[in-house]
Write a structure and sequence with these properties.
Elements lengths: L6 E8 L5 E9 L5 E10 L2 H11 L2 H5 L4 H21 L9 E12 L4 E5 L2 H8 L2 E4 L3 H5 L9 H8 L6 E6 L2 E8 L2 E9 L1 H12 L8 H4 L5 H7 L30 H17 L11 E5 L6 H11 L3 E3 L10 H14 L7 H4 L9 E3 L10
Parallel strand pairs: 1-4, 4-6, 7-10, 10-11
Antiparallel strand pairs: 1-2, 2-3, 4-5, 6-12, 7-8, 8-9
Helix pairs in contact: 3-4, 7-10, 9-10, 10-11
The structure holds adenosine-5'-triphosphate and the ligand CC(=O)N[C@H]1[C@@H]2OC[C@@H](O2)[C@@H](O)[C@@H]1O[C@H](C)C(=O)O.
The site of adenosine-5'-triphosphate has 21 residues, from helix 7.
């Protein structure tokens, strides 16, 4: 069979930490061949970020259908970020075949077959003049899958040739793992990652996150409280399984009674314990953990993981991947898979009944139409 054509795709996502829009670029056949390019983050305006944080704190609004204005603002922020990315990196619009637009998750309730990402594919395609694929999670959710995580097939493509079994851990707002052993891939969300600690630090110190994990490192975790937090029934649920950003906020309320350093240490310990607990749900002990996402820059998370796992735990840069832009690159890759009709999730990654295709394609308006 002839090799499939390589397609250049931009991927864009604003993750659950809502710090900004990550944009990157890949060239791929949507299968084993992937070359990744540069990435950039374009912060949301303070006003839009505050509006989004208020929205997700109010499930009734987030689940409702009256999000027209904020969706337009999020879509325009993504289109602007992608235009800026192309200008910053010297990328010619005509060289980009498709944009994979994940958008902004505001609510995720797979048990009710509901997930909501803000990001209007038609609007972004019209602004950019480039075809857009969005709504990656909906077909999976509709078929009874979790709709997340979707990054595992990208992790597997990148991990070809590395020693396995291997665990890739993303420490974003929410944590998720991909276990890879040859063709076998198992994935699920592990628990809270940075979201709980971010919100705690923002409330206590007015800072966006615990830089380097230094506040957490300066305190003593409340072991009894961590043991109680680890009793959440989610951790015993078999994989695949996925989470909403705020699923643990009410559960971890008791941490508010602790001092700043002790509270941060307790949340860091809880995050690391919940991620390390993932080994209970995979068939073999991974030889190595590769950590991606902003949480890999939190030295306290990384040290705690090393202590708990007893195998090498390294940032993904150890194997040449870019831990700031893996997810953005993933949605470029998945856009190409979507165009080629290839599955973007498997029963072992989302619990869908069969390998699922997904994503919706929005064609850019034809520029020559009506031209003289
Ligand atoms: N220098 C740093 N020190 C400590 N933590 C950091 C640092 N830089 C980033 N982080 C953490 O990483 C988080 C952002 O991570 P990332 O961008 O991977 O999340 P996301 O992509 O929004 O989330 P998700 O993967 O859940 O969608 C920040 O909110 C912060 O908690
Ligand atoms: C519903 C949703 O947006 N989930 C995110 C979130 O952030 C991390 C984790 O929870 C993961 O399941 C997913 O994102 C990545 C990109 C994924 O789908 O693989």
């Amino acid at each position: 069979m002839p090799d499939a054509e390589l397609i250049t795709a931009i991927g864009a996502i604003s993750g659950t930490s809502m710090d900004g829009i990550d944009v990157s670029i890949v060239s791929t056949d949507g299968d084993a061949r992937v070359t990744t390019g540069p990435g950039r983050t374009y912060p949301y305006s303070e006003a839009l970020r505050a509006e989004l944080l208020a929205l997700i704190a109010d499930p009734v609004r987030a689940e409702g259908d009256e999000l027209v204005e904020i969706e337009a603002a999020v879509s325009d922020a993504h289109a602007g970020a992608i235009q800026q990315f192309m200008a910053d990196c010297g990328i010619d619009r005509d060289s980009v075949r498709v944009v994979g637009l994940h958008g902004q998750t505001v609510y995720h309730r797979p048990e009710r077959r509901f997930t909501r990402q803000l990001g209007d594919g038609q609007r972004v395609a019209a602004t950019l003049g480039i075809d857009v694929v969005n709504r990656f999670r909906h077909a999976d959710i509709a078929a009874g899958g979790e709709g997340a995580p979707l990054v595992p097939l990208f992790h597997r493509a990148l991990a070809a040739g590395l020693e396995q079994p291997l665990m890739v851990l993303n420490l974003g707002g929410v944590g998720n793992v991909t276990y890879i052993d040859g063709d076998a891939v198992i994935a699920f969300d592990t628990g809270p990652a940075s979201a709980l600690l971010d919100d705690f630090v923002r409330k206590r110190l007015g800072k966006p996150y615990d830089e380097g994990g230094r506040l957490a490192a300066s305190g003593q975790a409340d072991a009894t409280m961590v043991a109680g937090l680890m009793k959440h029934p989610y951790f015993d649920r078999p994989a695949p399984k996925s989470l909403d950003r705020n699923d643990f906020h009410a559960w971890a309320k008791a941490v508010q009674s602790l001092g700043d350093a002790e509270g941060a240490a307790t949340l860091a310990e809880f995050t690391a314990a919940s991620a390390a607990d993932a080994v209970r749900h995979v068939p073999k002990r991974p030889l190595r953990w590769l950590v991606t996402g902003g949480g890999r820059l939190n030295g306290t998370f990384m040290n705690l993981l090393r202590q708990k796992l007893g195998v090498p735990v390294q940032p993904v840069e150890a194997v040449g991947w870019d831990g700031d832009f893996l997810e953005a690159q993933c949605f470029g890759y998945l856009a190409v898979r979507s165009m080629r009709g290839l599955p973007i999730s498997l029963p072992t990654t989302t619990g869908a009944p069969a390998p699922m295709t997904g994503g919706e394609l929005w064609r850019a308006p034809c520029e020559t139409e009506g031209a003289p």
